[in-house]
């Protein structure tokens, strides 16, 4: 009976297991913390390495991934600079001087990109003030008046007698172009007239604004109502035209 009682009694647990012994050491928790941190750090480094490898392959166009290089931004014209219109879409202009007239270009167009010397030569002196020349002056070699012709076919939109620049004609053309003829002694057209290229529209004379130029034609070209250098639109070089 006594043996049977002993068999039925529960076997007591050991009070100190191997884990409890380890955890009871002073260095146990610091060691566990450092080990855990090392594992996390190793995982992070492995993950970053895979990400960088994927990015590198995409950049080099590998693994079938096509990489498009961003296009360079378009260069725009600064607002403070005047844009010069292209001449390819505009019909060339004829020099506005009658056939057989021998002439020279007097004062040139004032170009902001020209040298200071050329800019000074393109200033009109009037009433103790200097003004940029907005066109070109055509002067006959004999100093006399001559026929002025339309540089391009178009519609006459303005004919006035200005006290400073003399008789003035404006002709409207395609592509927002207007040709201007000033310092005219006489006029043979009126507003609303349709003119052809080379048609006589008046004769050159003198004016108050450029009195030192003598008998001449002041010729301008305007695009979008802004003066531009007429010579970029004219058909022939001056040396070819003035000996017609």
TrEMBL record:
Domain M23ase beta-sheet core, first and last residues per copy: 132-230
Domain of life: Bacteria
Chain segments annotated as transmembrane: 27-47
Protein name listed in UniProt: M23 family peptidase
Annotated segments matching region Disordered: 69-88
GO molecular function (one): metalloendopeptidase activity
InterPro entries per UniProt: Cell_wall_metabolism_enzyme, Dup_hybrid_motif, M23ase_b-sheet_dom
Gene3D superfamilies: Glucose Permease (Domain IIA) (2.70.70.10)
Segments of skewed composition (Low complexity): 69-83
Record keywords: Membrane, Transmembrane, Transmembrane helix
